[in-house]
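Re: the request from the purification team.
They wanted to know what the chain is likely to look like in 3D before they choose a buffer screen. I agreed to run a prediction and write the result into the notebook, where they can find it.
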Amino acid sequence: MDQSSDDAGRRQTLLLVDDAPENLSVLSALLSGQYRIKAANSGGNALRICSGPELPDLILLDLMMPEMDGFEVCRRLKADVRTHDIPVIFVTAANDSIDEARGLAVGAVDYITKPFSPPVVLERVRVHLELKRTRDRLNRLGRHFSSYLSAEVATGIRRGVISQGVINQRKPLTVFFSDIVEFTKQTAALPPERMARMLNGYFDAMADIVCAHHGTLDKYIGDACMVFFGDPTSRGTAEDARACVHMALEMQVKIDELQTFWAEQGSGSPLAVRMGIATGLCAVGNFGSTHQLAYTVMGTAVNLASRLQSHATPGHVLISQETYDLVAGDFVCVPLPELHVKGLADPIAAYAVDGVVSP
């Protein structure tokens, strides 16, 4: 074992749980040279230790104890989100294969029978601590990389809903675009770090609202934002559209609340955001190359949502006819004169969302 691994081993803490003092003494003498040791003489004491601020890295747990046996202790540890990932090794005189299977079923990672071989105990402890370190590193990496992805996309990848490779499909989606009116002009005189603080604070607030409504945050484009509903998860086309409009209205309320923050950062006048929403069939999935992929959407609804956003009055939300047909009963919508938008030959119908229909 190299020096760095040896140091890592000494920093780790083992919790020894056994109602027999002599067994605790033997295990402590064996393991204290490499690890910090905590001891408990009952299942209840073990759980109390694990409810404290400093969690053990691994638990060696006796099976047959009065009042609360090892099975119940392990079940409770695995049911608690704080202690769920702590490896538990049963060390017991019970050598019945049924007990061993039961121990693994309640969440233990290993099962050592007494009388035990000291080298076997040392090696199994080392292996399971190393596995825990590896899992912890992978979890940290996963959290780091997932910050570059929408929460919905990250969840879809973890669950296997989103596959690797250049793969996409056609689905009915509702697409949202927003843009801060004249953001570049109003922040041109600000230092770059202050402008970045304003923009990041805004995106933080908007992303929280997107997640609350289960939207898929597609991308940021300067101070613009694109979100879609209906993939990788969907609650039905109509419900996805309603969630998107609710999200947009909640964003506008939050933007009003952000005015004080923006003023403190140096915005010369209140900032307003235009929003556009459209529903339709889109191609959704992985686009790009084998070297780099983007999980995104393409289709007329994407272009239309962007165009509606550019035609919206600052501080308001415009929706397409297709979206209106799905949400009309839930929102107060004001029809607008037909719009001529770039990229479409014919004029389109559009509606301004003026609030939620009172129950």
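For the purification team: DSSP finds twelve helices and 13 strands in the chain.
Please add any questions underneath this entry.
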